[in-house]
Every structure is written in C-alpha cells, then in structure tokens.
C-alpha cells in the first residue's frame, strides 16, 4: 500500500467539540485508514435519501474535503522540511457534526466529565465496524469469525461457547471467546487481550476479548512511562479470598492479562481520569513518558504468541498524539500532534490553528497530558 498524505487543514470549532476535531486529525494522519475510506465510497448508500451507513457517509464526505498531496521521501523530504509549510484553509467538519446530531448516543457522554476523545474514537470505530458488517454481507464478501488466532482449538463438550486451546508444551486451557465479524476496520484497528485465571488444583481458564483501544492504567506510582503501564497491565495479580467453584474451598489464585493479537494500528489510551470514593471524576496529574518507537516485549504476549511473532511484528512507530490540556476532568481542551507523511514534519492541530512543532516532539508540560497514542506497526 503506497503512503498517502492529505493537505493539512484546521477544523473550526463553533461549539465545545474540540475532542471531535482532535480525534479526527489523529485518524486522518493514519494513511491506511484514509486509503480504506476512499475505497469504500462505491459501497455506501450516501446518494440515497435514507442511507444505511450514515457514519461511513459522514467520514467519506469529511475526508473528501482534503486534497491528496505527494508523499516526499529521501532528499525530497529533507528539502521539504526547509520550505515554508503550506496548509489549506480551515473548515467546519459539518458532515460529522450532522451525523452526530442524528445518531447522538449517550455513550458519547461520560458521567462526571466533559465529552471524551477516547469514547468518541471507540464509538466511531465501532459504528464504522457495524456498518461494514452489513456492507460485507450485501456484497457477498466473506465474513470470518475469529475466535482465536493461535494455538490448536478444540470445542469443549461441556459448553458450546468455550474452547479447549492447546498451547505450548501441550498445555490445555479452557478459553471463553468473544467472536466478532471481520471487517476492513477490525482488520486495521482491532486487537485481542487474553485474561487468564489460574488456581491450584484446576485447569486454567482464559477469556479472549477484542479491543479497539488498549486501556492503560497510569495510577500506580510505579508507572512513569508507557512501557511501565504495559508492564503493569500484564503483571500477575493475586486474588485473595478466591473460592474454588468445584470444592467450595478458598484456594490460591491469580489473574494475568496478556496480548493475544496485535493490530496493525495500535491505539493506547492513558487513563488520566479517575473516579474517587464519592463517585466524582478527577484528572490524574503526572508525567508519563513515551517515544516514537515502541517495541512490545515478548513478556507482554500470550503464551501462544511469544514464539510466533518475530521482532518486526512487535515494533511500532508513533504517528499521532491526542493531548488533554487542563487541570480538571470536567473542563479542558484537546489538541493533537501528528507526524505528517507528506513532509516528515510533526504538526500541531489546535482546532482551526495548524503549525509545525518546532520543539522536540513528545515534550509537554502539565496540565497538558498525552491521552491517546496512535502507533502503526512497522511491517504494515
């Protein structure tokens, strides 16, 4: 797939929708996503009065507002960085706003804080995924179920929704699987987590759960970087007072989450909004370091994946950061920094304002904090 770049344009914010503008700028910095959207126009019903794909129609119309520009590489990219940057005029993403006003869902609103960029992104990707399921069926394209991506899978006799997964060293594990229909969106953004429960005297059980954004808890005092947060996610968690369902006796038990499937586009959500004992929502103020290069250690992977994924299949490059700026969860502002594939420069989008990031990227001062990190796998 050839790289594809769009002429940068700011987005006018006439309401409190900076979280939408910031998220959209991050998405269109994703060349595979832009390629995908441009290939879907012929499948949608956008020309009909009652479309069955309103979310997809709005995204197609939005991306059509951007001019495709050449992607410069090598010496051309180096010389482009010295040139005066050229940006298009800012505009209001009215197609997205109109779509939201029609299908406005409570899931876009989170109790106790302002509208949320991660919630919007997840709802948008889920909505596109659902619409694509119907398109795939209507066009007779194959719709696959993906219960598990590695290991030998055998149905259990006790429960049709459980599977017996034979992993390394012939060890068995009863695995509860959330099946999902494959679409171009899921092929691009969807990963899988594996949550395994171990306790004495019984076979391990595990649950496979798909995700569009990987939720990273940063509250732990040991977490000062993205790598720390990933290590915390996969650390073994002792379960006190666990009762064995068969014997009814308390037994030693632990739970561990690992990564079962790595998506081509990995979205990391740094959970800086936390709820206190009274139910109120506060913003967690701390520095969390991240870098442009991310290699997922084998320690983060499920037993079935450790020996299967080569080094390059675990390496990612950052292309977008969505920041939340402000001390409170109920207020604040979202801005986005993206690596523009046309020039090789980092750009900052603050609603209608676009500028080149002159200082070293990834340097920020509180109360601005990274909230969403979007990485692209190197072998994509």
TrEMBL record:
Keywords: Hydrolase, Protease, Thiol protease, Ubl conjugation pathway. Its EC number is 3.4.19.12. Gene3D superfamilies: Cysteine proteinases. The keyword Hydrolase applies. GO terms for molecular function: cysteine-type deubiquitinase activity. Residues 9-378 form the USP domain. It catalyses: Thiol-dependent hydrolysis of ester, thioester, amide, peptide and isopeptide bonds formed by the C-terminal Gly of ubiquitin (a 76-residue protein attached to proteins as an intracellular targeting signal). GO terms for biological process: DNA damage response, signal transduction by p53 class mediator; protein deubiquitination; proteolysis; regulation of autophagy; regulation of protein stability. InterPro entries: Papain-like_cys_pep_sf (IPR038765), Peptidase_C19 (IPR050164), Peptidase_C19_UCH (IPR001394), USP (IPR028889), USP_CS (IPR018200). GO terms for cellular component: cytosol; nucleus. Coiled coil: none annotated. Belongs to the peptidase C19 family. USP10 subfamily. This is ubiquitinyl hydrolase 1.
């Amino acid at each position: 797939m050839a790289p594809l770049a769009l002429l940068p344009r700011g987005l006018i914010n006439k309401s409190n929708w900076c979280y939408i503008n910031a998220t959209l700028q991050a998405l269109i910095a994703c060349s595979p996503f832009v390629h995908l959207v441009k290939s879907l126009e012929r499948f949608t019903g956008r020309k009909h009065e009652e479309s069955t794909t309103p979310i997809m129609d709005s995204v197609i119309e939005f991306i059509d507002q951007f001019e495709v520009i050449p992607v410069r590489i090598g010496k051309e990219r180096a010389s482009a960085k010295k040139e005066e940057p050229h940006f298009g005029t800012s505009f209001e993403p009215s197609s997205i706003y109109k779509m939201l006003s029609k299908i406005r869902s409570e899931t876009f609103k989170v109790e106790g804080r302002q509208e949320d960029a991660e919630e919007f992104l997840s709802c948008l990707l889920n909505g596109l995924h659902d619409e694509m399921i119907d398109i795939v069926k209507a066009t007779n394209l194959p719709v696959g179920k993906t219960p598990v991506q590695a290991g030998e899978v055998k149905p259990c006799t006790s429960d049709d929704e459980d599977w017996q997964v034979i992993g390394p060293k012939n060890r068995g594990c009863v695995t509860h699987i959330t099946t999902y229909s494959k679409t171009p969106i899921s092929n691009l953004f969807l990963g899988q987590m594996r949550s395994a429960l171990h306790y004495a005297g019984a076979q391990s059980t595990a649950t496979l759960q798909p995700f569009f954004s990987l939720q990273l808890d940063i509250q732990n005092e040991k977490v000062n970087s993205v790598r720390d947060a990933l290590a915390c996610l996969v650390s073994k968690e002792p379960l006190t007072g666990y009762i064995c369902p068969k014997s009814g006796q308390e037994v030693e038990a632990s739970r561990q989450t690992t990564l079962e499937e790595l998506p081509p586009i990995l979205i990391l959500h740094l959970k800086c909004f936390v709820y206190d004992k009274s139910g109120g929502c506060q913003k967690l103020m701390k520095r969390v370091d991240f870098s442009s290069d991310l290699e997922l250690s084998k320690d983060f992977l499920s037993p079935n994946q450790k020996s299967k994924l080569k080094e390059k299949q675990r390496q990612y490059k950052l292309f977008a950061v969505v920041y939340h700026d402000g001390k409170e969860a109920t207020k604040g502002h979202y801005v986005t920094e993206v690596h523009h594939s046309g020039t090789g420069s980092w750009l900052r989008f603050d609603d209608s304002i676009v500028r080149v990031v002159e200082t070293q990227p990834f340097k920020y001062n509180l109360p601005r904090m990274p909230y969403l990190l979007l990485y692209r796998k190197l072998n994509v």
